[in-house]
Automatic annotation (TrEMBL):
The chain crosses the membrane at residues 187-208, 220-241, 277-296, 308-328. This is Phosphatidate cytidylyltransferase family protein. The lineage of its organism: Eukaryota, Fungi, Dikarya, Ascomycota, Pezizomycotina. InterPro entries: Dgk1-like (IPR037997). One of its GO terms (biological process) is phosphatidic acid biosynthetic process. GO terms for cellular component: endoplasmic reticulum membrane. Keywords: Membrane, Nucleotidyltransferase, Transferase, Transmembrane, Transmembrane helix.
Length: 331
């Protein structure tokens, strides 16, 4: 079964903790020796038993028996209602999306609470190092792989079994934009990644087949969702950034005004030209942010993970616009 989502054609999400090897002596806990059959319309615990039976795995130790019992108890639906809820959560990757949103919201919360950017960077980097180290170790050691799968496997996609967790790219992307770009531009990029990307994925899954595809796997539904959601978030964010109190406490690139008057160097400004300020400046910034977010969703940058490219491309687009049309406070 295939699902079309926000620009990506992906297989139906299968929790990583339901993947098993054929050879009991070489079980990594992550990479199946044969493709997992996701076309069967069986309940999770039935598919798990069938898969193990077909591979003739013998669990000779009490540790593996306990592990099997844990898998059965954790995947078996308790009722039709629970089964429907389970399928919804897995198909739409709700847990995964909530995690991504919460990380971005936490970073922004620290920012508005006055935590200096260096402290936020250090916290981000520490989390990145810990997660990357754990992800590397789980590819090398069976015991760590089993623990990793049981703890965070439900947040991972099947294709991440033999690659790196996308949250690593998420943390790397947020770290880079905070290190490279002005703080207000960086925060807007992080909010785009947290909310606009999530909206694109959700509406792409729901309406991709009802709209046209802009290119291979990229649906109009997902792109429009990213554009609209980013524009709405930007309206609130740039209104907040444009406030005098924000600029007194922080150094921001957007000072609440935009200027489309660019005279030759050394010449006095045109008398009929004035900067755009107030609500109209926020409206323009919101439209530009929405378009930039849609563009970052659409672009495939050298095949890199979206969690890395979306914040970088979004921040670059906003920074470029403010560098040209920003008011006197631009830097």
């Amino acid at each position: 079964m295939h699902i079309h989502c926000d620009g990506v054609t992906a297989r139906k999400h299968v929790p990583i903790f339901m993947i098993h090897d054929q050879d009991a002596e070489k079980v990594s806990g992550l990479v199946p020796k044969a493709p997992y059959d996701r076309t069967e319309m069986k309940e999770p615990h039935v598919r798990l038993i069938d898969n193990m039976a077909s591979t003739n795995i013998t669990f000779s130790s009490s540790r593996w028996h306990a592990h099997l019992g844990h898998l059965l108890s954790s995947t078996q639906p308790k009722s039709p209602t629970n089964e429907a809820l389970y399928n919804t959560v897995q198909n739409y990757e709700i847990s995964r999306k909530l995690l991504h949103i919460s990380v971005g919201v936490l970073i922004f919360y620290w920012h508005i609470q006055g935590v200096v950017i260096e402290k936020i960077l250090n916290r981000n980097l520490n989390a990145l190092i810990i997660l990357a180290a754990g992800d590397t170790l789980r590819h090398r050691f069976i015991s760590i792989s089993a623990i990793y799968r049981r703890v965070v496997g439900f947040l991972m996609r099947l294709e991440e079994a033999n690659s790196y967790n996308s949250l690593i790219y998420y943390l790397l992307g947020t770290y880079l934009v905070m290190r490279i770009f002005p703080v207000d531009v960086a925060m807007m990029g992080i909010l785009i990644l947290s909310f606009a990307d999530t909206a694109a994925a959700t509406f792409g899954r729901l309406y991709a087949t009802k709209t046209v595809y802009l290119r291979d796997g990229k649906s109009l539904a997902g792109t429009l969702a990213a554009c609209i959601s980013a524009g709405l978030i930007a309206a609130a964010f740039w209104s907040y950034v444009g406030a005098d109190q924000y600029r007194l406490e922080r150094t921001s690139m957007f000072d609440g005004s935009l200027s489309f008057c660019h005279d030759a160097k050394g010449m006095p400004p045109h008398p009929d030209c004035s900067a755009i300020t107030g609500p109209w400046a926020v409206v323009i910034m919101s439209i530009i942010t929405g378009l930039v977010a849609a563009g970052s969703e659409f672009v495939n940058l050298l095949g890199c993970d979206d969690n890395l490219t979306i914040p970088l491309l979004s921040c670059f687009g906003i920074w470029l616009f403010l560098s040209i049309f920003g008011g006197t406070g631009s830097a």
